[in-house]
Write a structure and sequence with these properties.
The complex is a heterodimer of chains A (about 240) and B (about 525). Chain A is about 65% helix and about 0% strand. Chain A has one domain: Transmembrane di-heme cytochromes, Chain C (Fumarate Reductase Cytochrome B subunit, Up-down Bundle). Chain A is built from nine helices and one strand. With about 525 residues, chain B is of the alpha+beta class. Chain B has a domain of about 120 residues: nitrate reductase domain like (nitrate reductase domain fold), CATH 1.10.3650.10. Helices cover about 30% and strands about 15% of the residues of chain B. The relative contact order of chain B is 0.15. The chains are: A mainly alpha (about 240), B alpha+beta (about 525). Chains A and B meet through helix 2, helix 5 and strand 1 of A and helix 3, strand 8 and helix 23 of B. Strand 1 of chain A pairs parallel with strand 8 of chain B, so a sheet runs across the interface.
């Protein structure tokens, strides 16, 4: 049992994180063409709306919540000091968790029943969608069955996650958790592990740089200032697209 | 002044016969691939008609292009706020049904079916799902179907015409249509470029071709919404958007683009224009009344010394400036003022111009007495009791233009942001050239009359002959003045020439030649 625990919460997290970082970087650098959100709205739009909106919005909020509890556990604990605020936080989390669940079920149904969408579905798409579904079901189960998650996450799990980064895993708290929570934690690392091999890579090309970019983009294949200059018969610098 | 060069196009609609050869040439080279079957980077539409995708001109549906606001202009359906807000689901994106579901037929069934009582058939199957399907739509199903309730009557350009004017267009004896070939306009103020959240789209500084970097596109599909001409297409298989590339590999090699090269009616012209990039925003934000004229004015005189100096400062080669001075498109657009942009009100400053069609023939029905003629005929000859003549002579010089079957209001809605005078001006010039040539070749029009028609529209006999030459007689090299691409420098786009300096011919480039010991 201890070996399995060590694998799930010490060995595998490192494998997952290393694979995630290196794999994503390689995929982005070497096969930029394969980094796409692979939108299927063009083939089917109405059902997509009712799946994709609750899924993405819920996911952004729930993931953001997990991230906050990991980064600033003290602040979360302080917020949860008053029962009203704790309940507001928990209700919000469960609501958006359910929103992910509803969206994901809708998306999976669409993917499995629509003929056109089937034509653009790979086995990996189904695999990652089932994995996400399992993770969300576990997450909702944890939220409803093991309250108050936001507090014990900040108190017990945050130190564990930080200890992984400090390369001296403190696993006592994790080993003692109920199976459902353990599976949810392991699922998180499994998804992280899968990111470079699935369409989830599109998270990391979210177009935030668009906000600060000028609207129009003009690209010169040659240096317009130098090309007619007789003193520069060849370019002294490597062209950008080389 | 920031002069850049732009490869521009002029389509002479009087000459388009709607044969779709251009579309096929393009399809065979570029879009005969999985995911791109439905794409027609070049397509030909019948006008009036709804086009491809259906009703693409109706921006209340598709939200393409720019619209004027308090600060100038903003994208109508995309942009920083709207684009990022709608990134998970874009409510204004056309779907496959707005174009058509690509199909083929199961031809093998005709050969391989076992012997039986029934004739085997080749069922249509979807090229997306591979399953049998009912064909509901094709890329040019409004071809020649002017007047049908599904197509011509739903043309978005009809909205400004009164009920009576619309009815008049669809009476059988007054029915008329023309063809509108469309490719990407390679705009100066491209909405697709502005809308791309990833920054995958860009305009090339050297020749103005607008391209999508396939390795940077992330399928946020905002360009599909933003392009008011719907010339950016989403490849459902690769998850990347694609568009007309103006055959840039051909242009760089000195060839005309495939659609232009293959044009049977020789309606297409391609040439360099020099434009002032500093003015783009200001022109695109012009008020409605001055928009089209400002659009034309952004194109600069290639003989002007200041323009040439600024062009050189931007690295534009002498050969390109030379090409701009001999550009057939410059002649049509600026020197002669014959061409107009398609839907300038979208404010993308398209660089593809159209000579408006004078069709159908300006003619009137006259009462005549045919009895004398009939009496001369043999008894067994078929006798037609007609007493009218379809008169194509031009007794009244300009009266017939306003009476043309295709209402000026309709043409103005397509080409001049609703300004009928601008279209009439172009048509009068086309008419004047015809009258002048009739004087020269047939001789039944007096010099006084022919000269007056030319003077009325500000042309001279020489100019009219030039127009006639480029319209009717021009050879390949007159119609396509492709600037030298400077292949001697093109290598620098691909590799660093410093690497091989001094090595040529000795095989040291890859570092494999090692000194022996």
């Amino acid at each position: 049992m201890n070996t399995l625990n060590t694998f799930m919460f010490v060995a595998f997290p490192y494998v997952a994180m290393i694979t995630f970082v290196i794999g994503t970087a390689i995929r982005y650098r070497q096969t930029g063409f394969k980094v796409s959100s692979l939108s299927s709205q063009f083939l089917e739009g109405k059902k997509l709306f009712w799946g994709v909106m609750p899924f993405h919005i819920g996911l952004l909020i729930v993931l953001g919540g997990h991230l906050l509890a990991f980064l600033v556990p003290a602040a979360i604990l302080a917020w949860n000091g008053q029962p009203v605020r704790l309940i507001i936080l928990e209700v919000t989390a469960v609501t958006f968790g359910m929103s992910i669940l509803v969206g994901l079920v809708g998306l999976l149904h669409r993917r499995l029943t629509n003929e056109r969408i089937k034509a653009v579905t790979t086995r990996m798409d189904i695999a990652i969608e089932l994995l996400l579904l399992a993770q969300v079901v576990l997450g909702c189960w944890v939220a409803l069955g093991f309250r108050w998650g936001s507090s014990w996450f900040a108190a017990d799990l945050s130190p564990y996650l930080w200890s992984l980064f400090k390369l001296s895993p403190e696993t006592a708290a994790v080993f003692a958790l109920p199976v459902v929570i353990k599976l949810h934690i392991f699922g998180a690392f499994l998804i992280l592990f899968m990111v470079p091999f699935t369409r989830l890579v599109h998270i990391f090309v979210a177009p935030l740089h668009y906000i600060s970019r000028p609207y129009q983009q003009v690209m010169w294949n040659w240096n317009k200032d130098r090309i007619r200059d007789p003193k520069t018969p060849w370019s002294p610098t490597r062209p950008k697209n080389n | 002044m920031d002069i850049r060069s732009q490869v521009s196009m002029v389509f002479h609609l009087d000459k388009c016969i709607g044969c779709h050869t251009c579309s096929i040439a393009c399809k065979n080279i570029w879009t005969d691939r999985k995911g791109a079957e439905y794409m027609w980077w070049n397509n030909v539409e019948t006008k009036p008609g709804t086009g491809y995708p259906t009703k693409w001109e109706d921006q209340e549906i598709y939200k393409g292009g720019w619209e004027k606001d308090a600060n100038g202009i903003d994208l109508k359906g995309a942009g920083k706020k709207k684009g990022l807000r709608n990134i998970f689901h874009n409510p204004h994106m056309p779907e496959i049904g707005d174009y058509y579901e690509p199909f083929t037929y199961r031809y093998l069934d005709l050969i391989e079916s076992p012997a039986g009582d029934d004739q085997p058939t080749a069922r249509p199957i979807s090229m997306i799902t591979g399953k049998p399907m009912d064909i509901r739509m094709g890329p040019n199903w409004d071809d020649d179907w002017s007047g049908t309730p599904d197509y011509a009557r739903k043309d978005p350009n009809m909205k400004d015409l009164s009920e009576a004017e619309q009815e008049a267009m669809f009476q059988l004896e007054r029915m008329c249509f023309f063809y509108l070939p469309r490719i990407c306009n390679h705009c100066l103020n491209p909405a697709c470029v502005a809308s791309c959240p990833s920054g995958a789209l860009y305009k090339r500084g050297e020749d103005g071709v607008v391209l999508i970097n396939q390795s940077v596109c992330r399928a946020w599909r905002m360009c599909v919404t933003a392009c008011p001409y719907k010339k950016s297409y989403y490849n459902w298989h690769t998850g990347k958007s694609e568009k007309c590339i103006l055959c840039y590999p051909r242009i760089e090699a000195g060839y005309a683009p495939a659609c232009m090269h293959s044009c049977v009616g020789r309606i297409r012209y391609l040439g360099v224009l020099l434009y002032d990039a500093d003015k783009i925003h200001q022109v695109a934000s012009s008020d409605d009344a001055s928009l089209v004229n400002n659009h034309m004015d952004i194109i600069q005189d290639p003989f002007d010394e200041k323009v040439i100096a600024s062009a050189k400062a931007n690295g534009i080669a002498d050969s390109t400036i030379h090409a701009a001075q001999y550009s057939p498109t410059y002649k049509f657009i600026k020197t002669w003022g014959l061409a107009l942009p398609l839907h300038p009100e979208f404010r993308t400053l398209p660089m593809l111009f159209y000579v408006p069609p004078m069709l159908p023939v300006m003619a009137s029905v006259k009462d005549v007495d045919n009895t004398a003629q009939s009496e001369k005929m043999h008894d067994i000859a078929k006798y037609w009791p007609d007493n009218w003549l379809y008169d194509t002579s031009t007794e009244e010089l300009w009266g017939t233009i306003e009476q043309a079957r295709m209402p000026m209001k309709y043409l103005a809605s397509l080409f001049s942001n609703g300004d009928e005078a601008m279209v009439i001006d172009r048509l009068k010039k086309l008419m004047a050239v015809r009258i002048h040539r009739r004087r020269v070749t047939v001789g039944d029009i007096t010099d006084a009359k022919a000269d007056k028609t030319l003077a009325d529209v500000g042309l001279t006999a020489e100019l009219a002959d030039d127009i006639y030459y480029l319209t009717s007689l021009a050879k390949f090299d007159d119609r396509f003045v492709v600037p030298a691409a400077h292949r001697e420098q093109a290598i620098e786009m691909l590799e660093f020439t410093g690497d091989v300096k001094g090595n040529t011919g000795f095989g040291f480039k890859d570092g494999s030649a090692e000194r022996g010991s």
